[in-house]
Amino acid sequence: MGLATTYAVIVTAVWYLLAHAEILRWLQRQYPPSVDRWISCAACSGFWIGCVVALVGDVGYGRSYLGLDHAPTYFSGILVCGLISLVTTPVLGGILLGELKHIEEISTGEEE
Questions:
Q1: How many whole angstroms separate alpha carbon 2 and alpha carbon 41?
Q2: 70 DSSP 8-state letter
Q3: How far is CA 23 from the centre of its chain?
Q4: Residue pLDDT, tens place only, 67-105
Q5: Count of domains in the chain?
Q6: From CA 45, how far away is CA 19, in angstroms rounded?
Q7: Separation CA 74–CA 79 (nearest Å)
Q8: Which pTM does this prediction carry?
Q9: Could you list the residue range(s) of the whole structural domain that residue 88 is in?
């Protein structure tokens, strides 16, 4: 379960960087409208980012992702990671954005 949690946090972090981070604002301005809509949707982009993270993260090459650790289930592990990211990215992304907004309100003194 630890690897699933790690992947969920990594996928959410990558989504945040691609969609909302000030440090990549120059890149976000370059997105075509279709890519911008896709990146803005945490579930849509979360699925594909999750698949890439699973592929890069070595699922199927010795690491178990929710019990899918054998060579015949290699693509199943990638697909399951993508599907779980489809659900976890919007949830964790909402928490992240809400807390960042709360921190901004505290730092500027606008808290109620």
A1: 26
A2: S
A3: 17
A4: 655 444 577 778 888 889 999 999 999 999 999 999 988
A5: 1
A6: 10
A7: 9
A8: 0.80
A9: 2-108
